[in-house]
């Protein structure tokens, strides 16, 4: 007799069906070659809304995002993918500016939004303490500019704007999550029971938790590099190492009450320059696409859950609270961006223009991290959770649908400065960049100034003499780096030339491609995975 044992396969079957729904939704979204272009996040929310309509009819209970599912399974892949694919050189060259936006700017938004919400608290339907409002302002300050970055990549905006938005979002998530955990602990104590020592402890724990997470991330990156070095002849084990070690660093950091998101981001950021010297082309490509796949599906799951949540029976639609939150998020995002841009421009040689500042402020979308944090709030210690969830859903939908869909037309209308260089630099540009850096480092050494180029030379020397011998399977000199970059640029130029050839051109002949009769031979064999530039980021610090 045929029987279907639902309970035996319920969990894995539900996960598979869930993933298939996401795949079908993305297929339908991207099959539209023309017409209205919306961010994937907006379309996934619509898909979640449609599925939620069906579930609301047939299921007696609600489907919601579990905190453990978010923090243990969905957040780590998103954080690892963000850290792994950050452009290293641009990130470290603009680290001071990025930290100013991500730390000082985020703290400004949290305090300003929290105090503004507290000023209007008599108008709300629920009594809320200042600590609870600061907790909400923390989670609502988590930005998610994925849709903005995709527009930047498509239009090829200038590198400074790209890395400022990318870097700020990277560290902003870490800052908000660390503060979220600290304020959650204070909210459990209760605003009326807090004493001065609790605030001192919270301030100290912010730095301790952050430093601990960074240190664990550095250890994880070193361990990943060393393990891939030992297993250089075992290609099939190396991708698993690159995925498991950062995840273990995240779990260890969380269990020790440090910042897990900082640990896994730092691990992904620092391990990338070393594992590419130890791994084959196939192994590197496996790591790249597996990270992109699992991160995109994790984020898609969160947006689907957000679509589900619109049918929750526990919503508290306080229109005063929603209105004040929307206006505060929008206004203080612009104020903070212009304020801290003026501060960083005082010390920058390449200033951030007013148009770029406007785009940075307008690109402060809220998304997956924001929703995941509000769903993780403990309702017993925070009775206003339902109102927080309802407001967060409105803010995310507003920013994703309004700001996300209008970003590309706005960038084109304002004529945002495009990148002056090609995405894939030519060998001439690479050599000129090295000459400029060496010249500036020499000038700084002569005049006794320890500027950016001086410290870059010191870090490069430290990396080559002490770090690389431990973490890579073969020694690499600066000459090897130049040869590698030359080959990478050569392959990129050939790819660009092939893409520029008309479809009617006979690509099978040398004459049809207009290639030289005696092309310069490559200096050494280099894998395709090592020829990637902007997508994976420049691996040199």
TrEMBL record:
InterPro entries for this protein: Cation/H_exchanger_CPA1, Cation/H_exchanger_TM, NaH_exchanger
Q: Which protein family is it in?
A: Belongs to the monovalent cation:proton antiporter 1 (CPA1) transporter (TC 2.A.36) family.
Residue ranges, annotated region (Disordered) = 505-541
| Sorted UniProt keywords | Antiport, Ion transport, Membrane, Sodium, Sodium transport, Transmembrane, Transmembrane helix, Transport
A GO biological process of this protein is: sodium ion import across plasma membrane
Q: Which GO terms describe its molecular function?
A: potassium:proton antiporter activity; sodium:proton antiporter activity
Question: Domain of life here?
Answer: Eukaryota
Question: Which Pfam family is an annotated match for this chain, by its short name?
Answer: Na_H_Exchanger
* Membrane topology classification: Multi-pass membrane protein
| Protein name, as recorded | Sodium/hydrogen exchanger
- What cellular-component terms does GO give this entry? plasma membrane
Q: Which residues cross the membrane?
A: 12-29, 41-58, 70-86, 98-121, 133-153, 200-224, 258-275, 287-308, 320-340, 352-375, 387-405
Instruction: Cite the source lineage.
Output: Eukaryota, Metazoa, Ecdysozoa, Nematoda, Chromadorea
The protein's location, in the record's own words, is: Membrane
